C-alpha cells in the first residue's frame, strides 16, 4: 500500500541500491572525518595560538589558566565529534547490511541518527538565518546561508525518505509473507462446507 511520505526510488536508482549508496557514502565520509579529527589532537596548542579573539587580546598573552581551559574545551569538542562520526560509521555499516540482505531492523540506527541530524541542522539553519537577518550589513550572507542551508536540508531529508521508504517496503513484504504463509499452513476446514460427503476407507 503506498504511503504519502514514501518514495518509489532514489533518483534513478532503486530504494535498495540508493540505501546501499547512502550507507557507503556515510561510512567513507565518517571514516575520513575520524582520521582528520584524530590527527587534530596533535596540534591543539597550535590551534589555540591561531585563535582570533574579538577583544583584541594577543594569543601569546594568554594565561596558563586560559590555555588549559581552551585545551580542555578543544579536547572535549574533538572527542564528541569523533564519537559522533564513530556512531555514523557504525549506523552506515548497519544500513549497508540491512539494505543488502532485506533486514529492515538494521536500517533503524541510521534513521535515528539521520533524524537527529535533521532536527539539529534545522534548528541551526533557522538560528543562523534569523541571526544574520537582524543585521542589514549581513543580509547578503544571510540569503546565501539560508538558500544553501535549505538545499542541504532538502537533500538530507530526501536521503532519509529513501531509507524510510525501504523500511516500509520491507515491513509490508514481511507482513504479506506472514499472511500468505499462515494461510498456506492452515489445514482445510472441510467440516464447515455444506455438501461434503465422507467415505470411510
TrEMBL record:
Q: Where are the transmembrane segments?
A: 12-37, 73-97, 118-134, 140-169
Please verify whether the record's keywords include Transmembrane helix.
Answer: yes
Provide this UniProt record's keywords sorted from A to Z: Membrane, Transmembrane, Transmembrane helix
InterPro entries noted in UniProt = DUF4728
Region described as Disordered:
182-201
Key word Protease present in the record? no
Please, which domain of life does this record's source organism belong to? Eukaryota
Name it: CLUMA_CG019551, isoform A
**Name of the gene encoding the protein in the UniProt record:** putative GK20699
Amino acid at each position: 500500500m503506498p504511503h504519502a511520505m514514501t518514495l518509489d526510488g532514489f533518483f534513478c536508482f532503486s530504494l535498495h541500491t540508493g540505501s546501499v549508496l547512502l550507507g557507503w557514502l556515510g561510512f567513507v565520509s565518517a571514516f575520513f572525518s575520524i582520521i582528520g579529527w584524530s590527527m587534530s589532537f596533535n596540534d591543539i596548542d597550535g590551534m589555540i595560538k591561531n585563535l582570533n579573539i574579538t577583544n583584541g587580546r594577543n594569543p601569546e598573552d594568554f594565561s596558563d589558566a586560559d590555555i588549559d581551559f581552551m585545551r580542555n574545551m578543544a579536547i572535549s569538542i574533538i572527542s564528541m565529534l569523533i564519537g559522533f562520526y564513530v556512531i555514523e560509521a557504525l549506523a552506515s555499516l548497519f544500513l549497508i547490511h540491512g539494505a543488502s540482505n532485506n533486514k529492515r531492523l538494521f536500517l533503524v540506527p541510521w534513521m535515528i541518527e539521520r533524524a537527529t541530524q535533521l532536527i539539529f541542522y534545522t534548528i541551526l539553519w533557522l538560528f543562523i538565518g534569523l541571526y544574520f537577518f537582524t543585521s542589514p550589513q549581513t543580509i547578503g550572507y544571510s540569503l546565501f546561508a539560508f538558500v544553501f542551508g535549505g538545499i542541504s536540508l532538502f537533500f538530507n531529508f530526501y536521503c532519509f525518505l529513501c531509507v524510510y521508504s525501504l523500511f516500509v517496503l520491507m515491513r509490508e513484504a514481511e507482513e504479506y509473507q506472514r499472511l500468505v504463509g499462515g494461510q498456506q499452513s492452515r489445514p482445510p476446514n472441510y467440516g464447515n462446507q455444506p455438501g461434503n460427503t465422507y467415505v470411510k476407507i
